[in-house]
């Protein structure tokens, strides 16, 4: 299960369903010498953070093994952070793990058509990345 969580982390890093967080300043904010006036929309671009080479080596490579070394990263925030952190993050992780377990143990699958990942604005594949799935014998629970 530990490696499954690494696969989930890496999937959320590269293909997160929430690429940006939106906030509005309620008062003037001094951030590292920059004055951000009250009422400004501030966007945290999570997808860009997740592809920052100073935070993730070879950021465009799907590499679940990188998570064996990373214990905590402030540059990985698919579920947001702070007071508005996703309340469903743990159930989401469990749901993905259950789905992956059933897919891997009970089905064989093959790629029907390859495609390039595009961000517009959510990450998806140009072809939709269709796969063909076959059950492989008796179902594991
Ligand atoms: C992979 C799946 C999910 C991702 C990537 C995700 C991502 C996020 C993010 C980034 C936020 C913060 C939005 C912000 O700061 O503006 C958020 C908030 C929230 N999420 Fe999720 N979420 C996921 C699944 C779920 C699930 C399964 C539930 C419910 C069972 C859920 C319920 C919520 C709620 C209620 C908030 C608002 C929290 C607040 O504003 O106090 N999410 N989610």
Brief summary:
The protein has a single domain (2-135), classed as Cytochrome P450 (Cytochrome p450, Orthogonal Bundle).
Give the SSE string: HEEEEHHHEEEE
**Major sheet: arrangement of strands:** 1-4
- Strand percentage lies at 15-25%
Name the ligand types.
protoporphyrin IX containing FE
Rounded Rg: 19 Å
C-alpha end-to-end distance:
15 Å
Q: From the coordinates shown, what is the CATH architecture?
A: Orthogonal Bundle
Unreliably modeled segments:
none
CATH topology name, in short, is Cytochrome p450
In total, the number of domains comes to 1
Derived from helix and strand composition plus strand pairing, the structural class reads alpha+beta
Q: For the report, how would you describe the main beta sheet? A: 2 strands, antiparallel
Family: Belongs to the cytochrome P450 family.
GO molecular function: heme binding; iron ion binding; monooxygenase activity; oxidoreductase activity, acting on paired donors, with incorporation or reduction of molecular oxygen
Membrane topology: Single-pass membrane protein
Main location: membrane
